[in-house]
Every structure is written in C-alpha cells, then in structure tokens.
C-alpha cells in the first residue's frame, strides 16, 4: 500500500532510522503498575459519578518523574521511547475501569450477582478485543486522517514526552546540532509543567478543599421555564477544548444548547400541567429539575442520535477502513519467514502486529465468549459482539480523535449496542430474566472494547508523533489491559461487598415468604454483618414487586424471608441494623443500562424518544452538519461541553491574531493549522489536562479513605465560604476559571518580538 500524502510529509520526533531503548522490562513494569493504580482509582470515580478522565498524560508525567529519580540515584535515564511504552501500558487501566464500571453494576439492579468469573471474563475479553480491533485500523485513523483527527490528549501526551526528552533522545531527534535546541526544550518543558502545576493546584483547591464550586449553573424562569445553562469550570476540559479547536467544540456545545435550552424547556412547557407521571419518569414533570428531565427523557433522545451519528460516521469511513483492512489481510497467507524478511524493509515506525495474529486472536476471544458459562452466551450473541465491537471501536477511535478520551461518549455507544441487541432478542422471542445476563454481557464486552479501542488509538497517535514502534506499543497495551483486568474485577466486588447491607425483613415487608423447595442457591452473610449471623440461607431472586420490592432476598429453610440484600452499588439503605453508616456507590450509567435491558425485553422502552434522536441526526446530516459531534453534545451534560466550547473560542481568538503576523501570512490553511497545533497554547493546554486529570484521579482515590476530612471541609465551606455556597457563589466561582482562561490566551499569543527576529 503506497504511503498517503499525510504520512509521506510527516516526520516523527524520533526518526525511524534511530535506535533508542524502547520495549524494556522496566518501562513495561512501570507502566503496568501505574495502569493498575489508575484503573483502581478510575473505577471508584466511575461508580461515584459515572465519569473518568484520561490517564495517559498523568501516567506519562509520573513515569518520567520516577525514571528521573532513579537516574539521580545512579540508575540509567529513560529514553523518550521507553517513556512512551510506559505511558501506553499505563493508560489501559482507566479505559478498562470505565467500561467495567458503566456496565457490570447493572447486573445487581437486574437481580443477579457480581460473580467474580463473570466480571473478570468480561474485563479480560473485552479489553483484549478492543486492542486487537484497533490494530488494523491504525493506518486509517492515525496516518490517513492525521490532519483531520487531532487526538487532543494523545497530542498533548506527545508534547509532554518531547518536553521531557533526555540528551540522547534529543540527539536522536537531530536537535543536538541546533544551538537553541536545549533552550527550546527547556522553554517547552517550563510551559507544560507550569500548566501542569496550575491545573493541579486549581483542581485541588476546587475539589479537595472546596475552594469554589466545580460547576456553575443558571436556571431560567418563564418564559423559558426549565431552561438552564452551566459549565464545569475545570482546567482539563478547557485544555481539551483548546486543542480540538473551535469547530468541533462549537458543534458539541450546540448539541448541549439544544438539550438544555430547547428540549428540556419544551418538555417542561407541555408537561407542566400533567397530573400523572409521564413514562419513563416516575414523578410529575412539574416537580422535576432540568437534570431530572434530562435523565428521564433527553438521555434516550441523545442515545438515538449518537447511535445514528455513529452509523453514518462508520459508513463514511468504510472506504478508508476497507483499504486498511485489505492491506493487512493481504499478509495473512504469507509464511512467517516471508513476513520476517519483508519486515526488514518496513520502517520501524510502520511495523504493527501481523494481521494474521489479530484475526486468530479475535477468533479465539469469540470462541471463549461463546463457550464461557458465566456469560450465558450463545453463537448469535458472540456474532453480535464481533459486529458491534468493530462498529463502535471504529466510532470510538474517531470520536477520541475529535474530542478526546475523557469526553468520548462510550456509554452512549453501549446504549446503542443494547438497543439493537435487545431488539434482536425481542424479535427472536428471547425475553425474560434469563436473557438479561446475555444482553448485558454483550453490552459490557462491546463497551469495554470500544473504550479500550479509543484509548489504544490515542496511544498510537502519541507514538506516531513521537516516533515509537507501533508493534511494541501494541504489545505494551495488550499486557497492560490483561494485568489491569485481573485486579479490577476483585476490586469491584470488594467495593460492593464492603457497602452491602443485609436489611432485616421487618423493615421491608413482614411475613414475606416463597416456596423454598424451588430455590437451589445458598449463601451466608458477608462483610461486617457476618459476625452477627453465621447461618446458611437460601437465595431468592424476586423479579416482581408484589408484596415487596424486587431484589435479592435471603430466606430460611421454610421459605420465610429474613433479609433483603441491599448492594453497595446502587443500593438505597445507608445504615446497618446496628446504626453504622454505609457509603453507597450510585453508578449512574449502570442504572440507565439496566433500564434499557428491562425496558426492551419487558416491552417498556420509550421508542418514541429514541426515534426523536434518530430524526435529529438525520436532519443535521441533510443540513450538511456532522451529526455525531452534535449528538454527543445532546447526550452529554451542557456543563461538560461548555468548557470545551470556551477553550475552542480561545483557540480561535489566538489563531486569528497569530495568523495576522507577517511571518504567517504566506502560509496556507493546512500550514496555519499545523503551526497552531505546535503553539505554546497547545503546550499549556497539555499541562492543564495533565494537572487537572492527575488531581482528579488522586482526589477520587483519597475520597474513599479520608471521608471524614471531605465531609468536614464540605460542611465548613457550605457555612463559611461565599465562593462555594451562597447568593453569589456561581459568579464568584467563575473568577479563578476566567483567570486560567486568560493565562491560556496570553501564553497562546505569539510575542511581537518573535516576528521581528524572523
């Protein structure tokens, strides 16, 4: 396959002719351990709020710092390619944790157990499949679309790695002969790590110390009753918006504006007078807040739009994808010796895992999925996983390239997968509780595969810019995914068990009973309450609401209910019988997923809302507007897309000013775009992303340990801090955000003195 114009003109930081230490044991171990740590903290975060932040940049920063410390203690300094491998292996944990935390807790809501083998199988198989599906798409997404897909966090990560390059790496990059190379490298490093410090301090002051509100909201009254506008004032989202630029950021924000300034007010306007709840909501529209209306209605509209936009995006990318696959598939029939000999003619920066191993690996995974008993899978389910996995791995890579991993609506793709899967099950007559697990297993594996595919493409973009060997990166992330998957399953179960409450039946429905002869499963109490009751009980999965809520009950040998098992994840009882407090995990995305499975298979899904989203996407495409980015904005909270829009507008102002400089006026549009991508504003944005993301993960991890400290700080802030609580808190909280936005604008502007020197 001939090289594309993009790849022919592009030169990585480390040329393919250079030989530096790369796939070393210490880099692999460092990255894998960091991936496990970040995966654990990200799992906690997704269970609490349904969101994570990309771990690529924080892993890179920490790996570089640790390698530098070992160098000062007498060890060997790490090359930029070693740092890239460590970052690649370490990024896997966060993407895996998101997919796992979004899907598997839904099984508790559906009335089943978080079986360890089921959770670990889903994590391992979904993660490995995601990496394998991305390998043949590398040429399409990373090389062919190099100038179209920016992969903001991947680009930012490459800048971090280049800024921290050691002497041997700069020499390999050809910078040793440049007398200003060291000064330029130091300047880049100062900007990035200055931004990192700002983002870190900002996030700690904002979230950990409750210095000011993290989200500013303004709710409108009549005549736009129910309308609202808000923004999450976070440095990492501001930085992502600057890197992706004004166009995509504006389209995304427009989708959010439609949700919060049109759809929600419309629902409020027409539903305010209703005297009964309008399904799928369970309370009156007049009593619902804008966010409650979004959760009950607009999320379904957004899911339909995302699914449609994703399918259209996939259809447009099919020619490029086919060329990439055809080039890879052509090597399947070659012998190992033939491949080995031809690989010597392939540049180091173009070498990937052979496509035959990708195909064999994918077939092996599908085989295991089909025969694995805990997944309740069948052949059709395995085929659906392969089809939807490829579809949404492609869409995930595309979206990661446009808006970044942190804003990638993986949960929306999971919703779309479950919509199609459950509809197929409905047509096949596969309804009822026994198919809940099958549908969820399909959705969970596709969700994890899509999440990991987006992460993999982002890492490959970093490697493409830096000059890494793709094959080594692919090995690293496969190892990182496997190791992280082994520990995230047990952690998920431990988090749930630690917060599970066995509620005495007297508090639920005294006298509840069932036929014990039909129950085969038995268990004992687990966790703190086990010391008070060591008896063996039979397990009753109650699926209806007759006489008592649906759920999992423990009954004695006579069938008399003794306890309701209230899980730690999505449970409602926050006190044990002894009065001790229990910290629950909400897992908001898992709730939506459980509703979809039960809604379709039980015939209760609001199809009208889903179809509204489909029509929105089609109207946009007919108008010549990319529907997927807009649909993402409809699905995500406006508070998440608003800071992206602000960052994009700052980039627009900076580029508008810089392009007027005399030295830039002769550049064409593509060259101006490339100059903007190398600007100091992108460096500072990279630092913002790194600092904010790292602080967010550390804060999420510490929140589960220092709960008393967090509560005391929160109580003090509510009582004494006007930036956090009070009449003017929203306006005052914008001050620090405006300050870091102004710093970004000032740093992004090229100095007038630079124009004179040139």
Report on this model:
- The protein is mostly helical and 758 residues long.
- It is built from 28 helices and seven strands.
- It has helices at 5-9, 25-49, 56-72, 80-103, 106-109, 116-134, 138-144, 152-163, 167-172, 181-208, 235-244, 246-271, 290-329, 336-343, 355-371, 379-403, 410-428, 434-466, 470-498, 588-601, 607-622, 627-635, 638-658, 669-677, 680-703, 707-720, 729-748, 752-757, and strands at residues 215-219, 228-232, 501-504, 522-523, 537-542, 551-555, 561-566.
- The chain has a five-stranded antiparallel beta sheet with strand order 3-7-6-5-4, with no helix packed on it. It has a two-stranded antiparallel ribbon with strand order 1-2.
- Helix 12 (246-271) crosses helix 22, helix 15 (355-371) packs across helix 16 and helix 16 runs antiparallel to helix 17 (410-428).
- The protein is globular.
- Mean pLDDT is 82; it is low at 1-6, 331-342 and 754-758.
Structure described in brief:
The protein is mainly α and 758 residues long.
The oligomeric state of the chains shown is single chain
Beta-strand share of residues: under 5%
The total beta strand count reads: 7
> Uncertain spans, ≥5 residues at pLDDT below 50?
1-6, 331-342, 754-758
From the alpha-carbon coordinates, what is the Rg to the nearest angstrom? 26 Å
Structural class: mainly alpha
Q: State the separation between the terminal residues, measured CA to CA.
A: 40 Å
Helix percent band: 55-70%
Largest sheet: 5 strands, antiparallel
Backbone shape: globular
Mean pLDDT figure = 82
Query: How many H/I helices?
Result: 28
Main β-sheet, spatial strand arrangement: 3-7-6-5-4
């Amino acid at each position: 396959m001939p090289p594309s114009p993009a790849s022919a003109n592009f030169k990585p930081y480390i040329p393919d002719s250079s030989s530096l230490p790369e796939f070393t044991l210490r880099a692999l171990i460092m990255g894998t351990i960091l991936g496990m740590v970040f995966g654990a903290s990200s799992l906690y975060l997704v269970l609490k709020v349904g969101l994570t932040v990309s771990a690529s940049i924080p892993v890179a920063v920490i790996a570089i710092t640790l390698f530098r410390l070992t160098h000062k203690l007498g060890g060997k300094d790490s090359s930029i390619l070693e740092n890239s491998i460590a970052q690649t292996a370490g990024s896997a944990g966060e993407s895996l944790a998101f997919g796992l935390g979004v899907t598997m807790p839904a099984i508790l809501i559906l009335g089943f157990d978080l079986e360890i083998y089921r959770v670990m199988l889903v994590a391992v198989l979904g993660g490995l499949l995601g990496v394998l599906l991305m390998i043949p798409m590398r040429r399409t997404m990373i090389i062919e679309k190099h100038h179209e897909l920016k992969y903001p966090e991947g680009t930012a990560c490459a800048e971090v790695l280049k800024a921290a390059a050691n002497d041997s790496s700069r020499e390999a990059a050809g910078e040793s002969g440049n007398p200003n190379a060291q000064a330029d490298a130091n300047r880049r490093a100062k900007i990035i790590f200055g931004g990192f410090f700002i983002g870190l301090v900002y996030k700690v002051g904002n979230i950990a110390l409750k210095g000011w509100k993290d989200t500013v909201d303004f709710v409108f009254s009549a005549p736009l009753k129910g309308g609202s506008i808000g923004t999450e004032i976070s440095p990492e989202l501001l930085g992502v918006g600057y890197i992706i630029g004004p166009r995509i950021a504006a389209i995304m924000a427009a989708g959010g504006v439609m949700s919060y300034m049109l759809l929600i007010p419309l629902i409020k306007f027409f539903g305010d007078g209703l005297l009964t709840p309008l399904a799928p909501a369970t309370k009156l529209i007049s009593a619902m807040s804008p966010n409650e209306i979004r959760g009950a209605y607009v999320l379904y509209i957004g899911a339909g739009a995302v699914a449609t936009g994703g399918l259209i995006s996939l259809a447009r990318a099919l020619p490029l994808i086919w060329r990439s696959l055809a080039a890879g598939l052509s090597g399947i029939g070659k012998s190992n010796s033939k491949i080995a000999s031809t690989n010597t003619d392939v540049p180091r920066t173009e070498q990937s895992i052979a496509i035959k191993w990708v195909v064999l690996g994918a077939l092996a995974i599908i085989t295991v999925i089909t025969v694995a008993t805990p997944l309740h899978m069948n052949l059709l389910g395995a085929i659906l996983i392969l089809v939807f996995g490829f579809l949404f791995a492609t869409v995930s890579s595309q979206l990661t390239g446009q808006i970044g991993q942190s804003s990638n609506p993986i949960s929306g793709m999971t919703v779309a997968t479950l919509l199609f899967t459950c509809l197929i099950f409905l047509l096949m007559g596969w309804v009822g509780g026994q198919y809940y697990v099958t549908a969820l297993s399909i959705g969970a594996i596709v969700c994890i595969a899509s999440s990991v595919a987006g992460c993999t493409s982002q890492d490959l973009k970093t490697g493409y810019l830096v000059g890494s060997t793709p094959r080594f990166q692919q090995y690293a992330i496969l190892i990182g995914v496997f190791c992280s998957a082994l520990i995230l399953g047990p952690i998920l179960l431990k988090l749930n068990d630690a917060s599970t409450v066995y509620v005495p039946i007297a508090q639920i429905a005294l006298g509840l009973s069932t036929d014990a002869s039909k129950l085969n499963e038995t268990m004992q109490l687990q966790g703190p309450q086990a010391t008070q009751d060591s008896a063996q009980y039979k397990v009753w999965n109650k699926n209806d609401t007759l006489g008592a809520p649906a759920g999992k009950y423990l009954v004695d040998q006579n069938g008399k209910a003794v306890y309701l098992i209230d899980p730690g994840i999505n449970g409602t009882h926050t006190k044990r019988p002894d009065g001790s407090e229990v910290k629950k995990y909400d897992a908001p995305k898992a709730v939506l997923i459980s509703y979809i499975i039960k809604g379709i298979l039980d015939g209760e899904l609001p199809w009208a809302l889903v179809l509204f989203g489909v029509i929105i996407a089609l109207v946009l495409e007919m108008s010549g507007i990319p529907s997927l980015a807009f649909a993402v904005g409809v699905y995500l909270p406006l508070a998440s897309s608003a800071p992206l829009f602000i960052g994009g507008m700052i980039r627009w102002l900076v580029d508008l000013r810089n392009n007027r400089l005399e030295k830039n006026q002769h550049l064409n549009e593509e060259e101006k775009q490339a100059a903007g991508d190398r600007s100091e504003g992108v460096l500072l944005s990279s630092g913002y992303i790194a600092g904010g993301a790292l602080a967010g993960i550390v804060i999420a991890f510490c929140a589960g340990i220092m709960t008393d400290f967090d509560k005391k700080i929160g109580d003090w802030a509510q009582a004494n801090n006007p930036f956090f609580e009070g009449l003017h808190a929203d306006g005052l909280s914008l001050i620090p955000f405006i300050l870091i936005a102004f710093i970004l604008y000032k740093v992004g502007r090229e100095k007038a003195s630079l124009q004179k020197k040139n």
